[in-house]
Structures are given as C-alpha cells and as structure tokens.
Records
---
Amino acid sequence: MTIDASIPAAVVLLSGGMDSVTLLHYVVRDLKVPLVHALSFHYGQKHSRELEMAHWQVRAAGLKVHLELDIRLLSDITRGGSALTDPAIEVPDLASLSPDALRQPPTYVPNRNMILLSLAAAYAESQGMSHVFFGAQQQDAYGYWDCTAAFVEGLNAVLAQNHGVPVRIMAPFVHRSKREIVAIGRSLGVDYAHTWSCYRGGETPCGTCPTCVERERALGPE
Amino acid sequence: MTIDASIPAAVVLLSGGMDSVTLLHYVVRDLKVPLVHALSFHYGQKHSRELEMAHWQVRAAGLKVHLELDIRLLSDITRGGSALTDPAIEVPDLASLSPDALRQPPTYVPNRNMILLSLAAAYAESQGMSHVFFGAQQQDAYGYWDCTAAFVEGLNAVLAQNHGVPVRIMAPFVHRSKREIVAIGRSLGVDYAHTWSCYRGGETPCGTCPTCVERERALGPE
C-alpha cells in the first residue's frame, strides 16, 4: 500500500494491542501526520484492560484527542457468536485448534471490523479527516476474513461512492508479519510493555491463547 | 434483484417510515419468510417517534422479535455533520435546497447506513440468519450515496468474503419509486397512518421538509 506523504489528518483505530499501538506511533512519528485522533472501542471484550494500554500509548504519542466509544451492544447482538465477548464461551488455547477451526476461530467476533471501521469512517467524515488507519496484519488473515487486504479494498470501494469527500481506510501492515511490525515499532521506540494481547483478560497474560503465543513469537528471539 | 423464494430467516431493518414498513410486510406476507426479526435503531434522530410506528407495525406483522438498539453515540460522533441528529442544524425545507445541496443534503448522516447494516449483519450472522432486508428506494439515490444499488452490491461483495456463511443484504425496492412502494404496500394491506416520515419530529408532520413532501406525493392522488 502506497502511503501519500501528505495526509493532513487521520483517525487511528487503537485497541491497545501490539499492532495498533505500533501503527499509532508509525502514523505520528514516521508518516508525520500532523493531526491524529485515536479511536478505541469498549465492545464487551473480556480483555478490556487493553484499553488502559491504549490510554498510556496515546499520552506517549502526544495526542490531544482519544475517543473511546462504548459499543457493548455488540456483545449483546453477537451473543453466542464469539469467545471474545461471551462469558459462556471459553477462549481456546492455540494448540487446541484444528486447521478447520482456524479458518474462522471462536475468537472471531461476527462482523466486528466492519462495524468498527464504519463508525471510524463516520467520525472521520464528520471531522473532515480523510483517512482511517487500521492495524490489520498478515498473520490474522488465516482466520479473520475482516483483517485482509481484500476486505479493506472492498470497504474502500464502497466508501469511494460518497458524494462528498470519501474517507479512505489505510492498512499499512496488512502484508507484514507481527515480527516485522515489532521491528518497525522498536525502530520508533515503541514500549511494548505497555501493550496488551491476552484474550482471556486475566491479571497476567495466560501465555497459551492464540494471541499470547503470537505475541511471544513476535517479541522473542529468533 | 432476484429474491430467492426459499429464504428461511431474515432480519428487516425497520425505521418506522413508509419504505421499511412496506418492506417488513412484503417480507412477511409476500415473500413469506418464515422467521423474521425486526431491527430498529435509536441513533439520536430528531424524529425518534418513528420508532413508535415501528413497534405498532411489528405487532401488526405478527413478529415475535423486535430488537431496538441504542446507538445514540452515532449522533455524538457525527456532531455537526447532520441536520437529522444535531439540534444546532435546522432541517431544511425541500424547496430551499439547491441542486448542488441535493447531491449530499444536510439530512444525510455520515456513513449511517453502513453502520446500521454492519450491525444488522453481525446480528444476522450470530443468529444464523442469512439475509438482511434494507428499505433503500430509488428516490433517495439522488442525494444519499448509501441508499443505492451500487452501495448494496459493494457491501455484499465485502460480506461475501466471510469464511463462514456470508450474510447477504437484500434491497428489493432499490429501483422502485415511493409511489410504487405504496402501491405494493396497499396491495398487502399496509396501514400508512401508522408510519412516520417528518424529519423535524414535531407533534404533527411539518409538511415541508424533504421527506414530508415526498410522502405526500407518494400517498396522494396522481
């Protein structure tokens, strides 16, 4: 994805995980977008402590605006649909997932990213901000259809129909591995101690859920 | 749009206006979809009394499930962006709008329909319901890019990427005028006294805002 060097203002979707935190600092420090608003969602995720990390990182990046939207109704309408939001569904260990289950894992939240991105696009459009940055990365594409380049391109094709100034979604890490993202982040001085991954949302990371395993692989030695 | 005669279950987006009310009865009585859930949104619209009409029509259609979601955060994030949700912006008379203003009128709510449809799709997917019905009609296409056939096709192209069973949006009235929709509704016995259109949301319809004028033209004599 080519990034226009002259983006004047952008919204960054910020979960508080490694990918979106790196993205935030990349947009501010590397792309040097002059006006950046961070947007986080409380959607009923068990690991809502990721939002504390988001707050910390927003301060570290020196942003003035961090919007946190409460859309916990998402966990109501997807009841039974995801281990990420439904207390009755266990978050599985990565090792326990069959190849078939990996195609759309229990931690997938039905249509979550289209919802988050359409809200972000509405906010950006209302603010006259032309871009929304989204931290999708390559390693999620296996199981999450809403984390792929094709998904982003499809949504951009729809948004481009706007009769006014269309908002464009940018996913600069969509072809990057988490390891590559960490390398970018470290070059920008990102403090990964202030990011949260574990889906189980306990006091300390479980170490065995899919995102804990991937985090460890990305941060650890070769 | 060809409608598969064997849709087992569908969600109908129901505002309480003429088009979506007709759609509801069309899906139940004409398409005879066996399982129908109605979905309405309180998004901070001034004319929230349309929701009372939605309730009445759901009972008239004999539905068991009517979900009403509170997404008033939409009016917060689009503050300044729409006369439909911002008390500080007047709803204009249709007669006062220039051709240029009609291209994206003040009553347009930034990205509203993508938000509503993506929430509806999430709900449908979680319920295992394969279709979402959307009451877009031809006469809104002039000014609302998110009420067109191209918009619906674009979203369906994205939703079709789902690794599980994709949800499909159906907009059977997208090439119909409001007059044609009323003719369909009357043939189905729809009671238009229990629908609400006026954007100004007063005790009685103003008679001059865009939707009041269009309603009168659709319901009145040739």
---
Amino acid sequence: MSLIRIAVLATGDELLNGSISDTNTRDIALLLGPAGYRLSTGRSVPDRPEQIVQALRQLIPHHDVIITTGGLGSTGDDLTAKTVAQALGRPLEENGKALEMIHKRYAEMGRELDPVVLRQALLPQKSVPLPNTEGTAPGFWLRQQGCDLFFLPGVPTEMRSMLKNAVIPALQRNKPGAAPMLTRSFGFFGLSEPQIESRIPYANLPQDVAVGFSLDYPLVRISLRAASDNAENLLDSAEALLVEQLGDYLVARGDETMAAHVGQLLRRAGINLSLAESCTGGLISQMLTSVAGASDFLALSAITYADSAKIDCLGVDPDIIVTYGAVSAECALAMAHGVRARSRTDLSLAVTGIAGPDGGTDEKPVGTVFLALAAENVDQVRCYQFKGERQKIQQMSSCMALEWLRRFAIESLN
Amino acid sequence: MSLIRIAVLATGDELLNGSISDTNTRDIALLLGPAGYRLSTGRSVPDRPEQIVQALRQLIPHHDVIITTGGLGSTGDDLTAKTVAQALGRPLEENGKALEMIHKRYAEMGRELDPVVLRQALLPQKSVPLPNTEGTAPGFWLRQQGCDLFFLPGVPTEMRSMLKNAVIPALQRNKPGAAPMLTRSFGFFGLSEPQIESRIPYANLPQDVAVGFSLDYPLVRISLRAASDNAENLLDSAEALLVEQLGDYLVARGDETMAAHVGQLLRRAGINLSLAESCTGGLISQMLTSVAGASDFLALSAITYADSAKIDCLGVDPDIIVTYGAVSAECALAMAHGVRARSRTDLSLAVTGIAGPDGGTDEKPVGTVFLALAAENVDQVRCYQFKGERQKIQQMSSCMALEWLRRFAIESLN
C-alpha cells in the first residue's frame, strides 16, 4: 500500500490568460480519492510545445502517474499528441482502435464524419486509446520510464467520463491505490467559521479523520475526510460527534443545498407554503424550486416589488405603507397575512427590506430586512441588519427565511 | 520591452484534495494583463515544506517573478514564511514594519490583538512586508538570484487587494511590463458556439487581436484580446466588426449579465413590467432583481406554482386548466393577461412548462415550455422544447424570456 505519486498537468492558454479557472484538477481529485489515489501536485501550462515538454520531463522522474488535460481536439491549438510524440521519441501513427472509436462515436451521434477529425486517431507509437463517451477525440495512455501518462480532453464532462470509465480502471489494474479517501461534508447556517471551529470536538475525533472548512456564503461547509480501510466507521463516529455539537445548525449534507434540505422538511411536515418577497426579488422561491418536487409544498410566491403590487396583489392596507413604510414590521406582517389569505396556505412568510446599494436612510440603513411568518395562531416578525453588498444581503435574507421555515417545519414534526 | 516570465505557485492541501478549485491564478492573470504582464506557468502544491521548497527551487532559475499564494496566517498549516526562510537560508526575524502593519490593522478593525498573530511579523531576512488591507497577515517580497518572489495570502479578496495595491506597483518600478493586454468580452444568446464561430470575420480582424470562447450557459461568451500599445484602437475595430456580424444576438458586454442588459433596455424604454412564472420558479425575477434598480421597471412577479394559485391569484379560468392543462399556450396567455390586469402594467410575460425530471408525458415531454407576452394590442405565445436537466431547462427558459423582453424593449425604442 505504497503511495502512488500523481501529478495533473492542465494545458491551455485559457488557464493562464485569465479566461477561466482550472476546475479539472479538483474534479480529478474528487474522482480519484474514493479509489485510493491522491494528487501530489498540479501544473498549468499554455498550449506551447516547449512548455508541455519541459513540464513532462520534469514530472516523469518524480511521479508514478501523470494525468494531462487539454489539447486533444482537431483544431490548430490541439497539439498534445504531436508534442508528446516528439518529446518521447515516439512518432505519430494512425491507431486502428482509435480510428474505430471515432467512427463508432460519429455513428452514435448520427453525424457525418469530417475527414479532419480523423487526425484525432494519430497517436504516439504504443499508445492505448481511451474511448470518449461524451465527445469525439479519444484520449490515450502510454508508459514512459515506469510512469503512466494519461492524456485526457480538457472539456470537463469529457474528462470526467474518461477518467471514471477508462483511467481509474486502468490504474486499479496496474498501480493499486492506497486505502480509499472518503469525504463527508456538512453545511451549517447561523454560526461563524470561528464559532463552529470552537465547537468541533477535535480532542474526541478519531485520529485519522481530518476536518476541512470552506465557505459557501452564507453557509459554512465542513468536510470530514478519512483515508483508511476502516474509513466508513471512522467517519460514522466523527459525524455523530459533530452532529451532537452542531446538529442544531446543520442545514445541508453532502452537496445538498439548504433549500433542498428545507424543502424535504416542509414536505415531510406536510406544510403548504406561500411566500411574499420584496427585497429578495424571487431568490427564496428560486432556491426552493431549483429542486424538483417543490410543487408538493409551495403554492404561491408573490414578488411584490412595487408598493402598488403589495396593495393590489396582497391587500396590504395603503395606510400601513404611508405610516410605517414598505420596509417595516407592520408591512412585513401584512404581506404575510395577505399572501396567506390569497393562497389559503397553512404557512406564509414575507420579506421586505433594503438590499441596496441605494434606498438606505439613517433610520433604516441598507441591509435592514424584516421577516414575518404567519400561520394558524402564529405571528412572528423580526428586523435584521445584514452587512455587505446587494447580492450578499439578498442571499443572507433568503437563507434566514429558509432558516425560519426549517425551524417551523422541525417544530411541526416534533 | 522584453517579456517578464511570471509563475504562480498556489499552496494548500485544499487545492489538491478536491475541496476547492484554485481561482487565484485566474484572478492574478486578469489583474496583471492590463499592466502588461502575462503568466508563463502555474503550479499547485500541498502545504508541505519539502514540496514548496522543491517548487521554488525549480521555478527561480527560469522565472523573473514568482507569485505565491497561501500559507500566511497564524495557524498550524500556515508555514510559508518558515519554509521560505529555511529554503533560502534567510532566518526568520521579527520585521518591524510588518509588526506595525499588524497593530495598525487590528486598531482599524477595533479588535483586540491575540499575541499569536504577532507570529505573522516573523519574516525571512531582508523581506519587504506587503500591507493586507482585507485581512491581518502581511504578505512579503524578497529577491533571490534576480527573481522577485511575492508571498500573498490565499484568501481571494486579500490576495487581490495586495496584488493590486502592492505587487503591481512594485513590479512596475522594478520590472516594467510589456504592452498592456486588454480584453473585451461579449455575451451572445440564440446561436450555438459553432454558429457564432462561423460568423466571426476572422479574415478582417486586426492581426494582433485574439478571439477566445467560453460557455456561460446558455450564453456564449467571446473575448477579444490585444497586447499592444495600440490595443484600444485594435479592439475598437475588432468590436465594430463583431457587432456588425453578430450584434443582433449580443445580450451582454463585459461582466454584465443578460438580465442587467435587459433591465437597462426596459428602463430606457420606460416599460412597466409584470411576470407570471411557473416552471422557472422565480428565476426570471431573481435575475432581474439581482441588479439594483429593478424597481424602476418591475412591479409584480407572481410565481404561481400550484394550479390553485394560477386561478386565485391570476384569475386563470379553471376551464382552461381542465381543458388544455396548466402547461399550454392557452394557460400561458391567460397567466400573462391575468398578471397584467392585476398589476396594471404595460407589459406582462408568463412562463409555464415542465422543468422535470418528473411530470413529462408523450405529448408534452420534459422541457416543454410555453412563453406568452401581453401588451396593448399585442398577444404572443410560443412553445419551446428545451433539452437537459431541470436547472438547464429553467435557465434556458428564463433567458428566452429575457430575450423576448429584450426584443420588445428594442422595438419600443425604435
């Protein structure tokens, strides 16, 4: 169970001229981890033969595996195969299997084959072509000085599928990995990163479990990571300890969004919901409906941006707006009552506030947000002062609204 | 005007274990480009002294500048200064200016200084500290074998501000850059990437202008890039040619979103808008209101997810839903009329469809979406068949709705 040293070499001018960030390295790490492989290092170089060659020459002696992404198509800047052929002294030759893959792929897509794409079958001598189930250019694999070199497309969907279906199986046959690296992640809302860190029971966590933090504003995401044949059990006990300390703030598991989590709770509680949004402009509704099945609990959301809409559509008394303003506890409650009456739902929630950058006053600065919740025998309203720019205030307001819904659903379930 | 060779070295376990993608390299490229500097290569290594040292040793002889990110805080894995001190034989010493910066920063924040953070003032001998206007840990700069090494924080906001305020001015004094690299970007909607590519007048473009593509679903983004003292003029003529060929599909400039662009047009045209959304669940409203000033044109958006909401809130005739279904041209038009009547707006737009993954039938498969638009003497309705997963269908439907609004606003302005 020795550690396999793996490098990623991402090629492409776009990675260095500011066009895009490299996301392939992260995707490769995520796919290799559970199979027992970890990345030692990553590089990005432009589409220049001399830089690709230099990087490969530096990497080969110190790594067992090199995964290269990019430069596999049939256009001018797709020059990986040619460059590798020269660098390793293995002239390009037409690879019969690669040719077959290309023909098969075009037949599947029902598209006519442009002879230009047949160039994609020219691979360095003794290469093993790797099928591309998402695109047309095959990848390839060759071995040099004991190092396995895999050349994959740069397009993320093509790269991921080739890695999963061809590279990992090849690695597992040739260079078995160490223990799988398993990761579980959790999203928390309502505590800052330092507050969460201070509550993590580090002393009691199994020794081989590593804790990682990342910010997914306004959530704090924590990952628990273990590399061991016993990883599942280690993570089970670490998770139990984490939930014991922080379960009250846990609003998402894995890649789940907070809205998906809250939607599940509303569904389980059999709640029928309506929303009245003003400063969040539809964000709460959009979050809840980006997950399938929102129609099980969401009946109506009225985005009453204009005062006239609050009056006409929700029946807010114009006197309330004149006397207290549209951003007030009174208006928030009237909006909640109005949308509840109109939609005849169990529960309604309203948000009104000043997302900025304009519209703030001394008394009600940008970031002043009122939330109101109405249900049978329930009336709640509260004023918050959120900080930051418009989009942060909208996100924070929406997540706070989801948090109110989450707590209401949990109480209903208890 | 020789080319300065610049490497980025990103440090951090999180960059190689799948937690996050490195976005700092792109940000650095974007900030350096206009100042006349380009990146030659990028590397990522974990928080391990031996790997950081190895990378620096390999990079120093071949680069004029190395920008390192990460590892500057005061916790256990923040070990850049210590590692560099050992690698370059320059023992750590308390740097008076760095100490001053830290004290000043804490005073500004009004926070009490934990003695632990004073460790951040321990820098390799002969380092120049770089102020951190966003966080607490100063960066530092030192020169070794003619190479300028800058050590910046890994947190993107801190990194960017230090790069802008300290690194670029230092570079410009010490190693003047080449001609500035200027970039202009444009977002197109309604044509595929190959369709756009075939219309770009490559033959007529100024020779020194490079064209880049990126996908920002469902928009295709094109960047024009020129590195020359005459770059502004070159880009002006390239832009004119591009707009001549593709102007009809141009829906965003620079970092602008399509919604911001359409919002501007609606505002200029003095249109008062209401929306009725079903399958898009608030996404159109959220897009329009994520930009400040949407209250100038958006009065009301009714997200009528349930049939009962379509009937109660928009006054859709129940017979329409029974006879034609909620996903039908008839219902879309009735929704548009209903929301227009209720909000007394000039223009209204309605969307109803099947975003999936469930709810499709043979006759109306997932991706069937009806758009309807109503204004004085105008009634439009059309059925689309969009492909892909739920979120793609929602995005495509919302952008198509924005496209209808864009064309309506342009016609009103003409």
